[in-house]
């Protein structure tokens, strides 16, 4: 009889907890690592993670732990669900234990100084690991509450994709495979910025035409940027592109949308972020994205406008005026520019 190896989930926030529960539901033994031993003990006793997923029962197959070396020693497949600001800092000290592992990043952010995506950081600190990215329209609470959901595992390592599909694909969670790790990961990071804008638009009572214009032009803008970096624009028509953009830009359950909504209500950025109390990756992404767009000379009026509101003291009215009076451009320009 073969003994099944446990699977590690690194990060005890909303998404780590939701993924751990999905794996356990499929009969996998899961080690859910979090840095705080008291939180691990409380979850072990109460079978609930009240700070991040209140009311969701954590299945018996999930073993909360704060022992990272032991977790990595026991598991070959490792899902990483840390905020982008913490990933390098948390995993660099244990980089030797990552050798040969299958590391799947679920983190949707970009490193500030280097403009590296999280799987690129994993590759850097663990060059002998096998790397993948899981991304798509996956609000953690909906995943945990069994809303019918689809996601994408992206890697050039087909065996890794199959392994993730086998372990994660279930009754309410479909997992599609892609070979475009870069495009899938970039889509997940970029959409957070536009979700902040959509939250603002909702708070200001803007119309449905406006919301649709925002989402569609956001797709054009993020794809134009991605194509400039060499990504395949077709990936942006999939779950990890337009799929994730739609859910994050239209759901009040998205933390990025919530930050935008709070800003639209008149809160300062600091108070808006504080009110949410969870990770909203778009706040950091907007800074690095604006700098990179300037460096590459990519036309990104929405990013420029949001950056001006958040960090350059411009009012929303000034930015809307500038956006609406800009010269009209060609629709779907990013496809023809890419040569596809
Ligand atoms: N929540 C979602 O719906 C969702 C869905 C898909 C992807 N993601 C992505 O997953 C990543 C994590 O998001 P989340 O929603 O789970 O965040 P969260 O705010 O719910 O939880 C963050 C967790 O990380 C822990 N943490 C913070 N700093 C740490 C450090 N230095 N070392 C160890 N642990 C640390 C916190 O204690 C907490 O447990 C983000 O990049 C997010 O974009 C989230
Ligand atoms: O809550 P958000 O804004 O971090 O979005 C969560 C997921 O990325 C949606 O797919």
TrEMBL record:
Residue ranges occupied by any Glycerol-3-phosphate dehydrogenase NAD-dependent N-terminal domain in the UniProt entry: 7-160
Record's keyword annotation contains DNA-binding: no
Record-listed E.C. numbers: 1.1.1.94
Binding-site list for sn-glycerol 3-phosphate: 108, 136, 191, 244, 254-256
SUPFAM superfamilies xrefs: 6-phosphogluconate dehydrogenase C-terminal domain-like, NAD(P)-binding Rossmann-fold domains
Entry GO MF terms: glycerol-3-phosphate dehydrogenase [NAD(P)+] activity
Keyword Isomerase: no
Catalytically driven reaction(s): sn-glycerol 3-phosphate + NADP(+) = dihydroxyacetone phosphate + NADPH + H(+); sn-glycerol 3-phosphate + NAD(+) = dihydroxyacetone phosphate + NADH + H(+)
Localization (cell): Cytoplasm
Pfam family of the protein (one): NAD_Gly3P_dh_N
Main enzyme class: oxidoreductase
HAMAP family: NAD_Glyc3P_dehydrog
NCBIfam families in UniProt: PRK00094.1-2, PRK00094.1-4, PRK00094.2-4
Family membership noted in the UniProt record: Belongs to the NAD-dependent glycerol-3-phosphate dehydrogenase family.
Role description: Catalyzes the reduction of the glycolytic intermediate dihydroxyacetone phosphate (DHAP) to sn-glycerol 3-phosphate (G3P), the key precursor for phospholipid synthesis.
Protein name: Glycerol-3-phosphate dehydrogenase [NAD(P)+]
Organism encoding this protein: Serpens gallinarum
């Amino acid at each position: 009889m073969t003994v099944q190896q446990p699977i590690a989930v690194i990060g005890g926030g909303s998404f780590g907890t939701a993924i751990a529960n999905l794996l356990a539901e499929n009969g996998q033994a899961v080690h859910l690592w979090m840095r705080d031993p008291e939180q691990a003990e409380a979850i072990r006793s109460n079978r609930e993670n009240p700070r991040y997923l209140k009311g969701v029962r954590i299945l018996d197959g999930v073993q909360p732990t704060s022992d990272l070396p032991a977790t990595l020693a026991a598991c070959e497949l490792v899902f990483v669900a840390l905020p982008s600001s913490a990933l390098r800092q948390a995993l660099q000290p244990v980089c030797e234990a990552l050798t040969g592992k299958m590391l799947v990043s679920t983190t949707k952010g970009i490193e500030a100084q280097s403009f590296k995506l999280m799987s690129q950081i994993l590759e850097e600190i663990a060059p002998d690991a096998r790397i993948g990215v899981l991304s798509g329209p996956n609000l953690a609470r909906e995943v945990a509450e069994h809303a019918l959901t689809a996601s994408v595992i992206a890697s050039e390592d087909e065996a890794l994709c199959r392994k993730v599909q086998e372990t994660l694909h279930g009754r309410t969670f479909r997992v599609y495979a892609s070979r475009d790790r870069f495009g899938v990961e970039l889509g997940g990071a970029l959409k957070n910025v536009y979700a902040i804008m959509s939250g603002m638009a909702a708070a200001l009572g803007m119309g449905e035409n406006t919301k649709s214009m925002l989402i569609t032009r956001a797709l054009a803008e993020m794809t134009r940027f991605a194509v400039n970096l060499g990504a395949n624009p077709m990936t942006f028509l999939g779950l990890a592109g337009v799929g994730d953009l739609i859910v994050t830009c239209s759901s009040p359950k998205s933390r990025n949308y919530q930050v935008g909504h709070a800003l639209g209500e008149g809160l300062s950025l600091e108070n808006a972020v504080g009110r949410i109390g969870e990770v909203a990756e778009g706040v950091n992404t907007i800074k690095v994205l604006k700098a990179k767009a300037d460096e590459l000379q990519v036309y990104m009026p929405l990013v420029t406008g949001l950056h001006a509101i958040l960090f350059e003291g411009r009012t929303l009215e000034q930015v809307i005026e500038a956006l609406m009076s800009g010269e009209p451009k060609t629709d779907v320009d990013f496809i023809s520019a890419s040569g596809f």
